[in-house]
TrEMBL record:
The lineage of its organism: Bacteria, Pseudomonadati, Pseudomonadota, Alphaproteobacteria, Hyphomicrobiales. PROSITE patterns: ADP_GLC_PYROPHOSPH_1, ADP_GLC_PYROPHOSPH_2, ADP_GLC_PYROPHOSPH_3. Its EC number is 2.7.7.27. Involved in the biosynthesis of ADP-glucose, a building block required for the elongation reactions to produce glycogen. Catalyzes the reaction between ATP and alpha-D-glucose 1-phosphate (G1P) to produce pyrophosphate and ADP-Glc. This is Glucose-1-phosphate adenylyltransferase. Pathway: Glycan biosynthesis; glycogen biosynthesis. InterPro entries: ADP-Glc_PPase, ADP_Glu_pyroP_CS, GlgC_bac, GlmU/GlgC-like_hexapep, NTP_transferase_dom, Nucleotide-diphossugar_trans, Trimer_LpxA-like_sf. It is an enzyme of class 2 (transferase). The keyword Ribosomal protein does not apply. Residues 309-412 form the Glucose-1-phosphate adenylyltransferase/Bifunctional protein GlmU-like C-terminal hexapeptide domain. The gene is glgC. It comes from Ancylobacter crimeensis. It holds the Pfam family NTP_transferase. One of its GO terms (molecular function) is glucose-1-phosphate adenylyltransferase activity.
Length: 422
């Protein structure tokens, strides 16, 4: 049986984080052909899911479960390698919960709520007092303890994490209509005319897909929803609107619990769900003072720490000098006689001589041949770029060979390279 938390202990010590990490993220195109969106690489060393998991760990939560489904192998392997330090004897747990048809032999996870419902026995076995349901596919830093404290202080049935967004952009989100005390009056899914925030007609409150419940209350709601044949078994479509109508739902502003270092001027939250957004968020990290501070030692982003040698820059002769300007270069990389600008290299990338790369996001263990010129590209892990390839100078040619976005970013995968050589 779970031991009760000490008096005056942080609420996080009585909470479980339940991370929904089963989505494909189809707008990332071929980047998610072999991996779920939460497993996509980000920031040089991390995966996207590491931000949510690090938030939970840094907030003091020591019970974490991750529900997986689509193309789960890469994600599960990463979690096993990088998040295997939780110890039962310290009242800690880290469970990976693939869609294993435990409720029915014909049922995978039908929706976000069903992904929790199918594992109720595991949740009940730990007896957490509170549960915070999280999405595993966004990049942000947040102290969940502050959100948990609000939930308890207001005696809410559910507390919903919300972003303040320009009203003109809110139609892309689920929007909370709230009163002056942040009581949620209605939940509107992608409304054409989003309701404004009280006292701020130009802003709306968009759901972050973060929900806090008392565990016993959530279990009752999931069982009620599971018995409803007309439900889609989804938090945003079914569970939250029901509680808004029949219970007490409160909005929690992300700005109140976001974690910022001294160099981060505004709350940072990104859905890197398109190739353009993914490229921009990674390249933005090369700025002198980026909006997201990955160097904040007070709120580290935990991940699998692969053992690598230092990055290496070689050749110091005119026309063949290995150098990187305003770039991030991870361990194990070798920059051999080429120049980088505004680029981010993940672990183990090898770039050969006489080339130039600007605006490159190059995933682990890619190899770039000689005399290659690349501009505004995302190169998938392990891709072998042949000698002499030029990308980013002829839009029509790029679009015929690779995935070229509306903003001119080219996604390059190994099958695309193989097709060039047939």
């Amino acid at each position: 049986m779970e031991r009760p938390a000490p008096v005056n202990a942080p609420i996080a010590r009585s909470a479980m984080a339940y991370v929904l990490a089963g989505g494909r993220g189809s707008r990332l195109l071929e980047l998610t052909d072999r991996r779920a969106k939460p497993a996509v690489y980000f920031g040089g060393k991390s995966r996207i899911i590491d931000f949510t998991l690090s938030n939970a760990l840094n907030s003091g939560i020591r019970r974490i479960s991750v529900a997986t489904q689509y193309q789960a192998h890469s994600l599960i392997r990463h979690l096993q390698r990088g998040w295997n330090f939780f110890r039962h004897e310290r009242n800690e747990s880290f469970d990976i919960l693939p869609a294993s048809q435990r409720v029915s032999e014909t049922m995978w996870y039908l929706g976000t709520a069903d992904a929790v419902y199918q594992n109720l026995d595991i949740i009940e076995g730990y007896e957490p007092k509170y549960i915070i349901v999280l999405a595993g596919d966004h990049v942000y830093k947040q102290d969940y303890e502050i959100m948990l404290q609000q939930h308890v202080d207001q005696a809410a049935d559910v507390t919903v994490g919300c972003l303040e967004v320009p009203r003109g952009e809110a139609s892309a989100f689920g929007v909370m209509h709230v009163d002056e005390e942040d009581r949620i009056l209605s939940f509107l899914e992608k409304p054409k005319n989003p309701p404004p925030m009280p006292g701020n007609p130009d802003r709306s409150l968009a759901s972050m897909g973060i929900y806090v419940f008392e565990t016993k209350f959530l279990i009752d709601q999931l069982r009620r929803d599971a018995a409803d044949p007309h439900s889609s078994h989804d938090f945003g479509k079914d569970i939250i609107p029901y509680i808004v109508k029949h219970g007490s739902a409160r909005a929690h502003h992300f700005s109140r619990s976001c974690v910022r270092s001294g160099s981060e001027l505004t709350p940072y939250w990104r859905d890197v769900g398109t190739v353009d957004a993914y490229w921009e968020a990674n390249v933005d990290l090369t700025e002198v003072v980026p909006e997201l501070d990955l160097y904040d030692r007070d709120w580290p982003i935990w991940t699998y720490g692969e053992i690598t040698p230092p990055a290496k820059f070689v050749h110091d002769v005119e026309g063949r000098r290995g150098e990187a300007l305003q770039s991030l270069v991870s361990g194990g990389c070798i920059i051999s006689g080429s120049q980088l600008r505004r680029s981010l290299l993940f672990t183990g990338v090898h770039i050969h001589s006489f080339g130039a790369i600007e605006g490159g996001v190059i995933l682990p263990y890619a190899r770039i041949g000689r005399s290659v010129r690349l501009r505004n590209v995302v190169i998938d892990a392990g891709v072998q770029i042949p000698d002499g390839l030029v990308v980013g100078e002829d839009p029509d040619l790029d679009a015929r060979r690779f995935r070229r976005t509306e903003k001119g970013v080219c996604l390059i995968t190994q099958p695309m390279i193989d097709a060039l050589q047939k």
